[in-house]
Design a protein that fits this description.
Distance between the termini: 8 Å
Structural class: mainly alpha
Number of strands: 8
Shape: globular
């Protein structure tokens, strides 16, 4: 597409472009072991089945598990093991899958008694559902699948501490009675087993997806019947493994734009992108993807980006998420999200003269400050790394609540970032990563005191390492869905912003323009 083919909004100067940041309208995310395992089990008729099976086998860890360290391994390992057992039961290739399943079962027998799974969406449904499925496959009357004979009669895999299967029982009860389930549960419809087939009240979106999920769509479709759902599955699985969610157009564009404009990176945005993002914000807000309910997180980031780009629709869409103390991600949310509230504070801060905004900002600020950890960081339910939550909260407080207790909290957060920089100049939970280093750099540049020598030195070391870290590999999946995932372009935007942003009000040193296509 020509850069001058349509009207556009510019932020900053207009040097030559460095390329398109967003090329795929559906958005890009890393493939998921959990979701790919569900397609292996649920849709062996879908083209690419062999590639998905080989991809799962290739990603098994030396210790027999799949996925990230600690409790993060439980959901992907359960999915991969159940998929391998199902494929073996169907007469799939052996003995390699049997050996991998055997090692996976041994890993789970220990892991399920150790660290519990973290608070990921639908974990309390997924884990009991997959444990029951694995038990049925291993203890079937005909005996265990080929290559697993020595697992017959062993103790069943335990349910992790803190998980209760009664919610899964209730969800399946609703479906068995022909009653619809809440809209947000469509994203994990596969936990219902055979009851997911053409479930009452569940319909594919315009893209053909059920709950924006390949696994949920495959469970709802049941068999390769022609139609939008099958077309969606063929498209999303064309390369073999699949992501947890697709499409993610609104989510991706909102976050990419918000990250770049906040950091002062010059961006060139076609009119159709701005119009589409504006149209996605309805009276109840914006949804991450078609088939999912609107939520305050996507809504607030979209509102912030639109306000910074001169297209603000106001903040009225956030009213339905106000609990009186903080903002929920969606009505009826279990728990609360710090990054959602940081993003709400950002959106409200762009409209300081609107009625009720001042009081809401004060409430959200107090709520965020009260939830700072003793060492100065913040943690959140939507990301595995405290660097993401700390970045979001620090910048929101620094921009929109710069005085009093909030300023003290910001200084403590900056202190934690300085104290946790690794010897090589990077930041990261499990190892130094480009993504987490970018968040730390952006937070220090945006919230740290100007002229502080310690901050200047930390920024210089972090930025010097960013290009090297970014080039080593795609980086780990750190974002929370049913499995950990990496929203490719959102992370890329953060790395670009951190690499080129030398502080507020400074020029982009490489004089580049990012095009959102």
């Amino acid at each position: 597409m020509s850069l001058t083919a349509e009207p556009e909004t510019r932020v900053g100067p207009a040097p030559e472009p460095v390329g398109a940041l967003v090329d795929d309208p559906a958005g890009g995310t890393s493939p998921s072991v959990y979701e790919t395992g569900r397609l292996v089990a649920l849709a062996p008729w879908l083209p690419g089945h062999g590639e998905r099976l080989a991809w799962l086998l290739d990603r098994q860890r030396p210790d027999g598990g799949w996925g990230a360290p600690g409790g993060y391994a439980i959901v992907p390992t359960l999915s991969a093991v159940e998929a391998l057992l199902t494929d073996l039961r169907r007469g799939g290739p052996a003995p390699l899958p049997a050996a991998a399943a055997h090692r996976g079962l041994a890993f789970l027998a220990a892991a399920l008694r150790a660290e519990p799974p973290p608070d990921l969406p639908a974990t309390d449904l997924i884990v009991p559902a997959l444990l029951a499925a694995v038990d049925r496959l291993v203890d079937a009357p005909a005996g265990p699948p080929p290559g697993l004979a020595d697992w017959a009669g062993r103790p069943r895999l335990p349910l992790p501490a803190g998980l209760d299967p009664t919610r899964l029982t209730r969800v399946r009860g609703l479906l068995a009675a022909g009653r619809p389930v809440p809209e947000k549960l469509a994203h994990a419809l596969e936990v219902a087993g055979e009851l997911a087939y053409r479930a009452p009240g569940v319909r594919p979106s315009a893209s053909g997806a059920v709950g924006a999920s390949p696994a949920a769509t495959a469970a709802w479709l049941g068999r390769p019947e022609p139609g939008p759902a099958l077309n969606y599955l063929r498209a999303v699985a064309r390369s073999g493994p699949v992501p947890c969610a697709s499409p993610i157009t609104v989510f991706e564009r909102a976050w990419v734009l918000a990250v770049l404009v906040r950091a002062g990176v010059p961006v060139r945005v076609p009119e159709r992108v701005l119009t589409g993002l504006r149209a996605a914000v309805g009276a109840s807000g914006a949804a991450t993807a078609p088939g999912l309910p609107a939520d305050a997180d996507t809504t607030s980031v979209a509102l912030y980006a639109l306000a910074r780009l001169g297209r603000s629709p106001g903040v009225g869409a956030l009213a339905g998420y106000d609990t009186g103390r903080h903002f929920c991600t969606w009505p009826g949310e279990d728990g609360a999200s710090l990054t959602t509230n940081a993003h709400v504070l950002d959106a409200l801060g762009e409209h300081p003269s609107r009625p009720g905004v001042t009081a809401a900002r004060r409430r959200v600020t107090d709520w965020l400050v009260a939830r700072q950890e003793p060492d100065g960081r913040w943690e959140d339910r939507w990301h595995a790394s405290a660097y993401y939550a700390t970045y979001a909260v620090l910048l929101a407080l620094a921009d929109h609540a710069p005085d009093g207790a909030a300023r003290t909290a910001v200084e403590r957060g900056v202190g934690w970032l300085l104290a946790t920089q690794r010897p090589d100049g990077s930041w990261g939970r499990w190892r130094g990563t480009a993504e987490e280093t970018a968040y730390a750099v952006l937070a220090l540049a945006g919230a740290g005191r100007a002229g502080d020598a310690r901050i200047g030195a930390a920024l210089a070391r972090g930025r010097a390492l960013l290009s090297d870290l970014d080039g080593r590999d795609g980086g780990p999946a750190l974002w929370h869905d049913k499995d950990l995932y990496r929203p490719t372009l959102i992370v890329r935007a953060a790395v670009l912003a951190a690499s080129g942003h030398a502080g507020r009000g400074s020029a982009h040193p490489e004089a580049t323009m990012i095009r959102i296509a």
